[in-house]
């Protein structure tokens, strides 16, 4: 059991637990959540395996992704997940990703979680640069990156084959110094 915990005004970000199974399944079995992902909508077994794999891997583990549950403080409901990958060694590069149950989208929760995760990655883990990679048609994910001050750095034409088509991908990024300057002046 790890004590990783981030708190925002409305959210708690923590590692997954076995009793999050139903909430994770609700979110990740939804075709709208899986649409732009390399994975298919989750089955109950997928959700169980996911929690078994990720419940013990805290953010900042070198060379690894970690999966983090997004929980509403008010109701304790888990409404989605986010993820942080930290590269091995001295490169200090990271990557983030986000998923919210459709019923909880459109209220700024992903923005709130993303800011908190960036703050943790830059202030606590001292990462130098963080990227997010998404399908070029994933307008909501692109808007999220723009809201948290990330810069569009790359557009890859048909670089990924998934769900029976060639997908274009975009890469957003933000440097530690850019985030900290914006954060301290209240922009992010
Ligand atoms: C990507 C994803 C997490 C973004 O979720 P989201 O709900 O659009 O983002 P937020 O929770 O930050 O909400 C932002 C919306 O709430 C509104 N909002 C309301 N209150 C707000 C607040 N306090 N702060 C910020 N935005 C707020 C914003 O105006 C925005 O509305 P709009 O979409 O009409 O412009 C979500 O679309 C998702 O889970 N998609 C499926 C999975 C996926 O593809 N993930 C990305 C893989 S790379």
Overall description:
Helices cover 30% and strands 34% of the residues. The chain is an alpha+beta fold and 188 residues long. The protein has one domain: Aminopeptidase. An eight-stranded mixed beta sheet has the order 1-2-3-4-5-6-8-7, sandwiched between helices. Strand 5, helix 4 and strand 6 form a beta-alpha-beta unit. Helix 1 (21-28) crosses helix 3 and helix 4 packs across helix 6 (176-184). The two termini are 31 Å apart. The mean pLDDT is 97. The structure holds coenzyme A. Coenzyme A binds next to strand 5, helix 4 and helix 5.
Sequence-ordered SSE layout with sheet pairings:
Layout lengths: L4 E3 L3 E5 L5 H8 L2 H4 L9 H11 L10 E8 L5 E9 L6 E8 L8 H16 L4 E7 L3 H9 L3 E12 L2 E11 H9 L4
Coenzyme A binds next to strand 5, helix 4 and helix 5.
Question: What's the number of domains?
Answer: 1
What is the CATH first-level class name?
Alpha Beta
The termini sit apart by 31 Å
Q: Bound small molecules, which ones?
A: coenzyme A
Major β-sheet annotation: 8 strands, mixed
Looking at the structure, the CATH topology is Aminopeptidase
CATH superfamily: Gcn5-related N-acetyltransferase (GNAT)
Mean pLDDT: 97
Uncertain runs = none
Relative strand content: 25-35%
Produce a short descriptive summary.
The chain is of the alpha+beta class.
Which features does this protein show?
34% strand; eight-stranded mixed β-sheet; alpha+beta; Aminopeptidase; 8 strands; 6 helices; binds coenzyme A; 188 residues
